[in-house]
Amino acid sequence: MGLGFGRKEAGSHAASFLLGAALPTALLFLLASDRLGEGLSSISRSWGSGAVPPAGDGANEVIFKGLPELLPRVAMEDRTVIITSVNEAWAQPGSLLDLYLDSFRNGVDIAHLLNHLLVVALDARGFERCKAVHPHCYFLNATSVDMSSAKPFMSPDYLELVWTKLTFQQRVLELGYNFLFTNNRWSMDQDCDMVWFRNPFRHFPVYADMSCSSDDFKPSRAPLDNPLNTGLYYMKSTNRTIQMMRYWRAARERFPGQHDQAVFVNIRHELVSKLQVKIEPLETVYFGGFCEYHDDPEKVCTIHACCCIGLDTKVHDLKDVAADWKNYTSLTPEQRQKGGFKWSYPTRCRNSIGWRRP
């Protein structure tokens, strides 16, 4: 049944007038909001500085089919989702996905966060394995590349993958959802290469548009002078962050052959000065990695298998860390107070890149 335009009834003319008057008001209401919902996503894509070209968003509706229906089932009350990704190799029993999921169950009051974790599968077999162990899986069938095996770091297939995932993240923001993304840049094998111990959301600055991990954090430095690592980052869905994603992706042409983190590091000051994006690094005492970590199990939230090459290498050293955590949490309060705790040294990972730092 239509709205009755063209009929002679007076009631239909009144309805037409009221509808015409209401639409501009509703549009102004949407434009006044910094948080972008799905109703605003089509409008927001036409905004921005002249230097940021359109991102081919019409294709996003096809490439990321089903995502608008899936996100409401995964998101927290504040419309935040946790995102990681797997392929067939990482999703095998006993591999990175199992370690990742188990760490939530063994952490401090974070098992409920699994309800808000979206695992993005890069191939069909990884998707099937994900569905067998986790309720929220999404098949990123968005590239022509076979993603069932590890891709050499900086190979053309690798670059296509990391830039496609950035497009996916932009779509999540456009739909009005914040996200915490866990990812890795150093290795030939990617993602869910992390273990969780505590709720990380308590350590993201409320004023920041983007909170980003760092390989070597020093509070005495200016925020953007810390070595930023997109191994873990949290982004709010705002006008600024959508503009940022478009700017970031467009900057790829200025740095040919570079991955997304390298381009991000190169343009970080531009993002702040031109788009007024607020970017804050995260302290390694809370968000550690094999590049830099602290032996303080009372503060640590996550440990990331960065500075590491090779799937088996990552699995081995992350299993050591997970075992260390179980041993620590089994101690009595009195035993913990004695101190002396140290994580197992990530020998295989450090050797895989020739890392000699303590």
From TrEMBL:
<dbReference type="Pfam" id="PF03407">
    <property type="entry name" value="Nucleotid_trans"/>
</dbReference>
<protein>
    <recommendedName>
        <fullName>Nucleotide-diphospho-sugar transferase domain-containing protein</fullName>
    </recommendedName>
</protein>
<dbReference type="InterPro" id="IPR005069">
    <property type="entry name" value="Nucl-diP-sugar_transferase"/>
</dbReference>
<dbReference type="InterPro" id="IPR044821">
    <property type="entry name" value="At1g28695/At4g15970-like"/>
</dbReference>
<feature type="domain" description="Nucleotide-diphospho-sugar transferase">
    <location>
        <begin position="112"/>
        <end position="318"/>
    </location>
</feature>
